[in-house]
Amino acid sequence: MTRKAVFTDIMAVLERRIAAGDYLLKALPGERRLAEELGVSYMTARKAVTHLIQKEVLDRDENGCLIVRTRAGTQVEEQPTAVVLLVPAFPSPHLLACRSMIAKCVSERGGLFRAVEYVHWYDPVVREALDGNSGLIVIPNTEPIPSRLLRDFAVPERQVVFFDTDLTEAGLPCIELFPDRHIEKLLRLLASAGRTRIDCLNSQGHNHEILRRIELWRTFCRTAGISGTLWDAPAPAYGDPLGGGYRLMRSLLDRDGRPEVMLCTTQPAALGAIRACCDAGLVVGADISIATMNNEPTGWYFCPSLTGLEMPEVTDLIARCLDWFAKPRTPWSGPLRLEPRRARLLKGESTGSAGVARSRVGRTVR
Hints:
6-stranded parallel β-sheet, 6-stranded mixed β-sheet, Arc Repressor Mutant, subunit A, Rossmann fold
């Protein structure tokens, strides 16, 4: 049997890394560094690199450094679209669903994708992503974005899109997953049957998106002549909004009695509130209605199932951003705010909607 040359294994390793977007933020090391890193001789590493250059996978810049053939040194139409996603380093089904959706869209278009987790806005990886040559999608954490960094994001030469928030006032294109009209649809549902009071509970850290949701609740209540109290105990960045929601709900039940309807800004807050009601002997969906503005993918599977807005269909909006990324240094055209056309509102048992039907292969969301 003919023995496979070692350099082909090194080629396979490098191609796998390139496909995974490993070199979208950091520079590709030279042959000597690659040889040390992969435990092969310099000549083996050099032969692998030479073959990848011949395959037009790699190239050398004017300084002799190795580069991936994505944007530099090639025609735009010959390059795959390179996308970096900045995502908070926080375990969340919602963040995972966003990440998976974006990765799938990039993959289906033959692009390069790399998700990078950041802990805070001054994390070095934020600057690395911002100064790179890739299109950048940012999912914000619960900390306010420093004004200087926000200005850097909005530099016209950079191609940055914010996901799941609205920062169009800063001149940034954004995909708003739960626009005003969708949240208002949920509020109208909760206000049906002659309800005169809707309280709001928040245990998530204050950022632009959370404050927007609270203000929408306030505006709706004022316009509709509905009363309500804001119960607000924001968790610190990367804190526990679920435990915070439980403690906040339990405290108000012990002190102020039972509200009729509780609208929560996020699913973790709603789950904490539901547990507090159960511990207080209340039947959620009968004694009290609880809903969330942002229902993560697990909402249907809880008992009771949780009423709220589920992840909308936004693949067409992501595709619009990828088309922009494929044209480096091209100004954004059209509206800055991108919104899904239809709301996906799950009417669950947590608001007494026990008749919601789902089939074994799908689900009915009205």
